[in-house]
Amino acid sequence: MALHMKVTPAAPEDRAMVLAAEVLQAGGVIVYPTETLYGLGANAWNPVAIRKVHDLKRRPDNKPILVIVASDEAVRGLAVEISTAARALMKAFWPGPLTLVFAAAPGVSDGLTQGTGTIGIRIPSSPLCRALATLCGYPVTSTSANVSGGPAPQSVREVETALGSGVDLYLDAGALPPSLPSTIVDVSEERPRLIRAGAVPTDRIKTIIPELLL
To answer: What is the pTM of this model?
Structure first.
C-alpha cells in the first residue's frame, strides 16, 4: 500500500523530503507536486525505476521523459554541450517552467531519451522540487502523473484513480490550481526551436533569443 504525506510546496517539510529521497534512492516511484501539476518521480540514473514510470503511465516507448535538477552544474552531467543560447535561457527563466532539450551525454538512460539522442531538463521554481533534487543528489524524472494521453492531474485523488497501486509514495499538496505545462525549447541544434508552448510565453523567449524557430 502506498504511503501518503501532506506537504507544503512553498516550504516543504524535512521529514517528507527525506522520506521521498529514500524512496527514490531505493528505486521506488513517487508522486509529487510541481509548479504546474503532479509529476511522477524516479531516480533518473536508475533504468529499472524509469521502466516503472513508463509502465505506470502505459507510455509508448518512443516518448522521452524529462528530468528536473537543482543546479546548472547538474546539467553538465546530462548534456553534451550547453550552448550560448541555452545559457541565456537558463539565466533568464530558471528556476521556472521552461524545459530545455539538450543533446544527451553518454550514460544517460535510453529510458529517458527513447532513441532521440536528447534529454529534456529544467530547474523548477517549486522549492519542493528543488529540495527533492538536492537531497537525492541526482536528476529526478518529472513526467505528468497520468496515463499517457489522459488529462493532467490536479490532485492526488485523480492520480490514484488513474494509476492504481504502483506508486510507492504520494506527496499530497491538495488540489493544485489549473496551470499551463512547462514550455519546451530544443537547444540541441544550432538554432533553438520551440517544441511546446506553455507557461513561459513565446514572446518572452524571443526577447532573449530572437532566432527562435517556431
So the answer is: 0.93
